[in-house]
Inverse folding.
């Protein structure tokens, strides 16, 4: 099985992006039983989709997981929904700050992650790693990458399964944001290994109660 | 202009649902310059869509706003996205608790609210009422009602504009949930009046920065 | 019974202080069965204690409740502890920002509120008002006023019973601080009436479980 | 320099207590340049003070730091205040649940930590570890241990300096409490080493702004 994992450049004034640190460490370790490829994505509405398409064309993965920073969240959170909307509360790394714009003109309003997110969360919790399913990836570049990934899977890369993981600040980042939760790099990397092995091993999700009342 | 506003039955063990209290009070007051109709919706995955369709057929509104309780949120929150997914963390009032089921077989993955949500939030804040745009209405009956409303607008009721408002616990509810925020009934009703007058007055939204990084 | 209630000047950039608004409205209504006096306190480490002593000398109350703003809290919170420490995260209204200084040289490290705080919280919740006992009033002017009040009761004003109530932002304030909880002025005033009538009627507190593990 | 560090037994249904895990790991590593002693404390209002006194008599430390679990907090939090109050929201490990009782009959209402808490927090943040000063250690056994430690220092063990550190859930605990923050054991142990070396090296605290408005 060929697996692509991406992490983002630092943005929003942070000196590091935990997603890039984590996927690079994962790349150094490798994933037994699979061909693992790690690529950086720019935090840019225009360049992230290009970089993603280029990586898919080059690597032809069976499975792709984009990883991004969610400063303020406490858990590994597997996104379930990507929406066809760019609405940026801050500028991206190119200085672009789109407002209420579709990501793909004429594309569907949303895609659902094509990964067994509940099974992955159950496995993470079982392994002692805090995790949840999330129902919104926001409307910044993380959501854009997830949307483009699933749109590419639905159009030019049939058979590709993909999704998105949001991760907390690293402790060194939270140290500069009093009160914010964090997660150590090793826990994140362990989580990535587990998510990828669950997703590689099964296509159908666990049928367990979940979701949110609001 | 003909306007339909709905509120839900109490659920999840609460003796009241602030949405039903608020829309009933709004109904008693009326909305100058428009024909306002108020209807209750059952907190039921199967019966809420039926009641909604029946109300639309009977009343033929130009504008419809469904209102629901978001216990734990602090603000009036205008939902932007409804997803084609029923995933219930608790049973509805019929004892049904669907897992990972589409609301409408073959329907689009999501609808966006057809209301000027940013303009409404700006007007609410200007009027001294705490408000935000929300990117997830959950996967329970509130999201289901919003999805069905927008699906009906897209299919059998062309010209209908609609959306969803989540509101906090009432103080009397938060009094039984220590630490939870609340909003008084009068603030909610004032907010409803303002949202409806903004939505009645304009179709296009304000072009201001918004959204969320995650 | 003679009762003094105080509220603070706006601080920290806020145009209003909900505590001053609430005690003034309470003063307009009066409290049946008691002589109620309402006084403003400056948000100043040096002038608040002077104003408090002057009011006590002038009015000789049996009961005194200082009220202050706790932006970010969701409930009426009755403070249990005042500490002999001035440690200001922001400047007060005189531009003073003391660091790690005792409020009263040689005074006890702390005073406990001389009010039935658990009984008041139980009555508030019973009446449908969100309320809790708090174990820290901070180290700014609110804590200073509470400490000085209880120190004056312990020294020059024997028989005086006193305490402190922190209240949330008003809705109009929270409207400028997205995500923050609020409480309407009427709920706060109803809460004040109830707290004062409970405190006037009984000196001993309810013996119910409470407190915090951390 | 002789240093005592204590951690607590698991309580409240948790299978582990991160404080005991962390101080044991610290004990295995040792602290270069000092004689480090690690002792467990029972989560018991009656037995914790006895165990603490016994350890002080046996070991005669110059510095003592008690460590406890604060499930729900995101940071290493150095407590500044211990109050003479037992008010237990849950039963301790002996089944005792005291309500509104002094810890030491006739003792002062509170003690302040006799450690440079701001200097330690600054060093922790500088080292990339999330940390804050806290103004309340609660009213359960953690606060009781801190109060007794500082009371013993003020009475029978002159010259002893002491304080209290609250730490977050471990990831494996937060995995069972969705939404709660956590901190890895290695980060906690690194934090402990740093706190102890700062406290061993200096008695006076950093003069920097701090505290809380409420």
């Amino acid at each position: 099985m060929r697996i692509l994992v991406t992490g983002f450049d630092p943005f929003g004034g942070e000196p590091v992006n935990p997603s890039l640190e984590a996927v690079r460490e994962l790349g150094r370790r490798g994933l037994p039983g699979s061909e693992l490829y790690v690529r950086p994505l720019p935090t840019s509405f225009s360049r992230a989709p290009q970089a993603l398409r280029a990586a898919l064309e080059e690597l032809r993965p069976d499975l792709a997981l984009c990883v991004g920073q969610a400063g303020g969240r406490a858990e590994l959170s597997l996104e379930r929904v990507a929406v066809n909307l760019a609405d940026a509360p801050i500028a991206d790394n190119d200085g672009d700050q789109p407002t209420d714009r579709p990501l793909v003109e004429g594309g569907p309003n949303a895609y659902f992650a094509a990964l067994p997110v509940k099974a992955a969360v159950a496995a993470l919790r079982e392994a002692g790693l805090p995790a949840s399913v999330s129902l919104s990836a926001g409307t910044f570049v993380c959501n854009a990458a997830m949307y483009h990934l699933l749109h590419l899977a639905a159009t030019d890369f049939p058979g590709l399964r993909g999704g998105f993981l949001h991760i907390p600040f690293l402790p060194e980042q939270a140290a500069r944001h009093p009160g914010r939760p964090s997660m150590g790099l090793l826990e994140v990397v362990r989580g990535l290994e587990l998510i990828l092995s669950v997703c590689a091993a099964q296509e159908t999700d666990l049928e367990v109660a979940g979701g949110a009342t609001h």
